[in-house]
Write a structure and sequence with these properties.
2 copies of one chain form a homodimer. By secondary structure, chain A is an alpha+beta fold. The first copy, chain A, has 2 domains: 13-64; 68-211, Arylsulfatase, C-terminal domain (2-Layer Sandwich). Chain A has 8 helices and 4 strands, in the order H-H-H-E-E-E-E-H-H-H-H-H. The first copy, chain A, has a 4-stranded antiparallel beta sheet. The longest helix of chain A has 50 residues, at 15-64. Chains A and B meet through helix 1, helix 2 and helix 7 of A and helix 1, helix 2 and helix 7 of B. The structure holds calcium ion (2 copies) and magnesium ion (MG) (2 copies). One calcium ion (CA) binds next to loops of chain B.
Chain lengths: 222, 222
């Protein structure tokens, strides 16, 4: 370490070095202030553009509602997200009417993903929300709406069999609803990131372009 | 995939759906334009603050030159970078007079790390530069100054023995100069990222705080 080369560094430091270190510290303080100002300005730009984007996202949402199964098709065509969606889950996602990503006013503080459903035979909730709180002075934290499954429709109870069947077929063992309800490692929730940064900004490309590597063998079954 | 649920999606698509998809496409184009404008404004902020930071970095550099062994001590105290520095390399880094990180005018396009040396018994170069070109329309690429080792001082020739000795001691096998000259995977050069985003913005904290886990056993040897 440093000590072995400059034995006077900690205690017997000479006056010139002490002054130099103090001068460096001054520079660092000025740099820190500039960094903080830069972050604030960048945040302002992001907030401004989130507001400018909003009417287009709203208009898009209204149009998407006219297209049957828009979101479920975008999801099952998405290379990463499709890997999660088990067969019965796909049936359930046909009732997904609307998907929304809302960043917090201060985008660094987090975001939520909202899944808005039509009346459906699987659960009573109209909205399922997974929210990520990433604020600067807290540990990352996520929370999910508790799903009120209808009688005998609880897909999460079928998880052990599903996982077993998927393991045998060599598929990803996490499923869509197990991802939704899993809040163990919010800082490493890749699926939420992919939804926020890829599916949400442009779902049309996935809706239009079936994924050729999605492991969906329905075509073979039919 | 989408085809199995909406068999008319590709060809026999009804007029309302066709119109809806075209409306979504319009929204996406407006969103793309806004995203591009936002990126440009953020880049302008970053460029502005790089210019504002420059005089403080220049002043800091002038002061650092007055402190013997500032950079080698900051480096050997840094938890990640220190892992690379082999004993003979540390001797060589005592001649490191100046370290600089320069981002390109468009910060997204890349950066270079400059190591500026005093006359030294190891090599003839006054500057060793590793440069990362990360521009948007090219594959990431890095290049390094070819080191002109003096006779019998070529530390890279000692790599096989060094690597072998380090493996036996359970240490990281990459060394400082092998990292410097390695341009095989520029997009995953964690060390360059750590130098740019951690050591360079605030070396003082590392200079002042010896790393307790740096595996440097000089104290034991003395
Ligand atoms: Ca869209
Ligand atoms: Ca400093
Ligand atoms: Mg030493
Ligand atoms: Mg289907």
């Amino acid at each position: 370490g440093a000590g072995s080369d400059d034995d006077d560094q900690q205690d017997g430091m000479d006056e010139a070095t002490r002054q130099a270190l103090s001068d460096i510290d001054e520079c660092q303080k000025e740099l820190d202030e500039l960094n903080e100002k830069a972050s604030k300005e960048i945040l302002q730009v992001e907030t401004k553009y989130n507001k400018l984007r909003k009417p287009y996202y709203d208009k898009r949402a209204a149009v998407i509602e006219k297209i049957p199964n828009f979101w479920v098709n975008a999801i099952v065509n998405h290379p990463q997200i499709s890997m999660l969606v088990d067969e019965e889950e796909e049936d359930c996602l046909h009732f997904l009417k609307k998907l929304e990503v809302e960043e917090f006013e201060n985008v660094e503080n987090g975001f939520r993903v909202k899944f808005i459903f039509d009346e459906n035979p699987f659960f009573d909730n109209a909205e399922l929300i997974k929210e990520f709180q990433l604020g600067p002075n807290t540990e990352p934290k996520s929370t999910s709406t508790l799903i009120k499954w209808k009688e005998n429709m609880d897909l999460s109870k079928k998880q052990p069999q599903i996982i077993d069947a998927r393991r045998k077929r060599g598929l990803e063992q996490k499923t869509f609803f197990s991802w939704f309800s899993d809040n163990k490692d919010p800082a490493a929730d890749d699926i939420a990131e992919v939804i926020k940064d890829d599916l949400w900004p442009n779902p049309l490309q996935y809706y239009l372009t079936p994924d050729m590597e999605d492991g969906d063998d329905e075509a073979l079954e039919e």
